[in-house]
Amino acid sequence: MSETGTDxxxxxxxxxxxxxxxxxxxxxxxxxxxxxxxPGAHMAVAGDGAFVGSVSGGCVEVAxxxxxxxxxxxxxxxxxxYGVADEEAWAVGLACGGRIRVLVEPVGPDGLDDxxxxxxxxxxxxxxxxxxxxxxxxxxxxxxxxxxxxxxxxLRPGPWRDAVADVLRLDEARVMxxxxxxxxxxxxxPPVRVVIVGAVHLAQALAPLVASVGYRPVVVDPRDAFAxxxxxxxxxxxxxxxxxxxxxxxxxxxxAVVVVTHDPKFDDPALVRALASPAFYVGALGSRRTHARRxxxxxxxxxxxxxxxxxxxxxxxxxxxxxxxEIAVAILAEIVRTxxxxxxx
Length: 345
What we know:
The structure is a single chain. The chain is of the alpha/beta class. The chain folds into 3 domains: 1-108, no CATH class; 113-190, no CATH class; 193-340, 3-Layer(aba) Sandwich (Rossmann fold), CATH 3.40.50. The chain is 33% helix and 22% strand. It is built from 10 helices and 16 strands. The strands form 3 sheets. Strands 13-12-11-14-15-16 form a 6-stranded parallel sheet, sandwiched between helices. It has a 5-stranded antiparallel sheet with strand order 3-2-1-5-4. The chain has a 5-stranded antiparallel sheet with strand order 8-7-6-10-9, with helices on both faces. Helix 5 crosses helix 10 and helix 6 (242-249) runs parallel beside helix 7 (264-275). It is elongated and about 65 Å long.
């Protein structure tokens, strides 16, 4: 679920509303089989048929646009389901063989209230983890978080509130209760951060690749000549020593830390700080021999065996990568696997 993509979709929906255009928002509620989009995927549709986002990767978007126009004409929400029978797979269905259920609702007084949408965009811009609850039977909404029951909206909190923290932790949308009459909880987490220690050539390949999947790269290096806007256009730069930078950045459970300098005076302090944090991924560039020496130094510095075991080294999936660009792909792939399949080998 691309965080950057979600922001773009929601911002476009608000922009259309502010321009006076009718807007509907389609949201994937459930998937079965090999449906290509996850629950929570959005698609915003304007009254003239223009749309942004996707609910199926191209399989049923035309049908959803038609549903959205009907919703806007009637001022009433709909829940529609699309699946595949062989004879209709290429007509209006999922050629990949799955099924999806989609909520299509107006944006505005008859659906997702403008104030709730504005509050959601504000929370996302602030990097706040929130969840949007939607009453599938009554149509009400509530913007909530693990800490605050009511941030915006008119839906009253119910027993489903107990699941908010779990939904945010797992970053997985779900329907609580009956499929047709329950409450749909859609997490809106801040983007995954990837802190790259060392503004070296590999970092120049890795940072834009990280950004391309909706994660937020942060490059740490105290050397101005390395950590420059010219070498890292559009990337957040922290020109401080790694231990100071990581103390300031405070890696959390949605942060990956990758050290790539090959220099112990940069890498070791960064690893000590990263391993003392709840960062979900800690990776270090270097050969097995280099890493063995590194483990000895970190052990002498007081890092426990359990924490040493958290380090992914040599960094990245073993795909035979050679160039900095290929190594960057291997690193990002390992970060994604660790995030989405934390118990994979």
